[in-house]
Amino acid sequence: MFRRIRKHANPASLLAMVALFVALGGVSYAAATIGSAQIKNNSVKGVDIKNGAIAAKDIKKSTRDSLRGQQGPQGIPGPSGDASSLYAVVTDSAGAGNASLVRGKGVVSVAEATGIRVQFNRDVSGCAWIANKNQPDTGVAGAGFAQVGLSTTGNDTIDVRTRTTAGAITDAPFHVTVIC
């Protein structure tokens, strides 16, 4: 085996092998022997560190704490109370002036206008209103739909209109929920 190597060995290939050995050995030597004591302070920059190589646990707590900014101003307070419990179940059989409240929470009055006006005991202008054309006793949905919007009479009142599937206005019972 040595005869084969000697037969093909020449000064250039021997020099190349020695250079390869030194290069590979030097990297291994550096990786194994260079530590924090051999690195000059403030000489390692962000570009020298591999992304993801440093975790929060690797940074002193006092340094992490110094990175926090000041607390911002307090936000504006939200509405008080539980608006999600405002609701009305209303009957409205055919004919004028016969809409009435079956049950509800936070309802002040129910009156017929262009549709039905439901007045609540608080401002509901910044809330969501959901109305469904439903039977008051069973909750079974009737054919058609209900529309709801803020009344022009005040921020505590919404107008509900029930319609047929074709879109015509009709007198019908409904449920309405106010969520803030």
Question: What do you see in this structure?
Answer:
The chain is of the alpha+beta class. The chain has a domain at 83-179. It is built from three helices and eight strands. It has helices at 2-8, 11-33, 61-66, and strands at 86-91, 100-105, 107-113, 115-120, 128-132, 145-150, 157-163, 174-179.
Summarize the helices and strands and which ones pair or pack.
Elements: H1 2-8, H2 11-33, H3 61-66, E1 86-91, E2 100-105, E3 107-113, E4 115-120, E5 128-132, E6 145-150, E7 157-163, E8 174-179
Antiparallel strand pairs: 1-2, 1-8, 3-4, 4-7, 5-8, 6-7
Notable traits:
single chain, 180 residues, alpha+beta, four-stranded antiparallel sheet, elongated
Average pLDDT number: 80
**Structural class computed from helices and strand pairing:** alpha+beta
Question: How widely separated are the two ends?
Answer: 89 Å
How many strands? Answer: 8
- Across the major sheet, the strand order is 2-1-8-5
